[in-house]
């Protein structure tokens, strides 16, 4: 599994690494090798290769655990996640971070199933090239004794972390934590009142098959089981009730593609596009927040490990709840001919502003991500008053006729606190037409619970 860098040289120059990943001009004042390599791992070239958000955050949890453990094998300051020996005296922390990140990323990329298309095969090759280029920029053509020891420490931590999730035969890794079969068993529930179904055509325009049915069976990183923080039953499950009618009519109006498309520059339309347009990648949000803090590499490593472990476990917990309740999405509910509630009126031509994700409504997955990330940040810094500003470019968006496609749009949003970001992200899914409100807040609560539990028990100060 180890991929040692051959040669021998001066200390690495982090500005070379920053240039290699396109950060040299606008590198944050408090950036270091941990945040630089976090940016490499979460870059558009690398992170999407692992699949959907559930798979991406699993990969990032593995990367950041290895980085954390590598640093703490050099100078023990926090409890390590996996067992391992001490690094050699004089080991370079920056080399350890580089090696831990590269070895975990390349190992996991090599363990992926064969690329389904030539395009994806080329994308994977580009990801490998980008990772190796960043490593070469960080280490240089020659390696001195401290860097060699740091590389050994990083590789050792990476190997230990990978072998908790993979088996290795002849250096080839195979997932052993259940993540290799994300869509098994296949979803088979028949259509019925309140029952989740494949997104009906012609939404975008094809139907969407329920996915990640196997994710509840993936082994968790920290929480006891996928059921530990199962969301409680929702009031909206009473389809004949007034609470359901209020939420139904709210998302029917505010998440309608025809309304949102008619007001493409409204705050609601921007909020709906902003979060899936990039802001749900909370590693980047966290780098923006810590850029104004005076944290060192060990503190950064602990924060990013706690955050990604919490989010990865929150996603496992979330899919368990989703496929326990199997509650239908707004697009299915609103097109249903007669749900028996006199306060709801069906519309067979209704379409959400954004494409419906391929799994049940309750609880919301994206707010589980945000709740876990914000909860970790809140506990780590001891305050909710963490502000950040994020700019994303939302992709072009098709709309139903006679409306025309919305072009790509650069959107900037500012958040005065973590709660501000959490609440806006919850409403974003409703404005997108893809969630009922109650499920969004249930996702936030579950994510917060996971984050609190992980923070209290893992990677504690020594």
How would you describe this protein?
This protein is mainly alpha-helical and 462 residues long. It has two domains: 162 residues, Phosphatidic acid phosphatase type 2/haloperoxidase (Vanadium-containing Chloroperoxidase, domain 1); 243 residues, Orthogonal Bundle (Vanadium-containing Chloroperoxidase, domain 2), CATH 1.10.606.20. The chain has a two-stranded antiparallel sheet. Helix 1 packs antiparallel against helix 5 and helix 11 packs antiparallel against helix 13. It starts with 13 loop residues before the first helix and ends in a 5-residue tail after the last helix.
The low-pLDDT segments are 3-16, 23-28
Radius of gyration: 23 Å
Structural class by helix and strand composition: mainly alpha
In DSSP terms (H or I, runs of 4 or more residues), the helix count works out at 15
CATH architecture of the largest domain: Orthogonal Bundle
Biggest sheet, open or closed, and with what strands and sense? 2 strands, antiparallel
**Relative helix content:** 40-55%
- CATH class of the largest domain, named Mainly Alpha
Q: What is the CATH third-level topology name of the largest domain?
A: Vanadium-containing Chloroperoxidase, domain 2
Task: Give the H and E element order.
Answer: HHHHHHEEHHHHHHHEEHH
